[in-house]
Amino acid sequence: MNILVALGALLIVGVLVWAMKHYTTPPSLLAERAALRVKNLAELREAESVAANTYGWMDPAKDIVRLPLDRAVELTAAAWQHPAQARADLIERVEKATFVPPPPPEKPSEFE
User: Can you give the pTM of this predicted structure?
Assistant: First the structure.
């Protein structure tokens, strides 16, 4: 009889230990981070795929467009058949794309 009571008590303690461990252990941060990284990587690859394979506006104000990589390689290879003209065109496009207008004139001081 004493052995049954002792085994019953040990069984109850074992169940309580398992329940406490189960309910008090926080979820793994690594699993959450891994899922977030997988989601972010999928979004990044989708955005890169769209950028590499579609036409689109980069800056409509400056008339800068995005070309698919295959078409850009074709145009570049054709343009560089004449290196001097290609360099001049490239410099012109860079200057157009990076042009920053001068700041407006400063307001004159009220003491002038």
Answer: 0.54
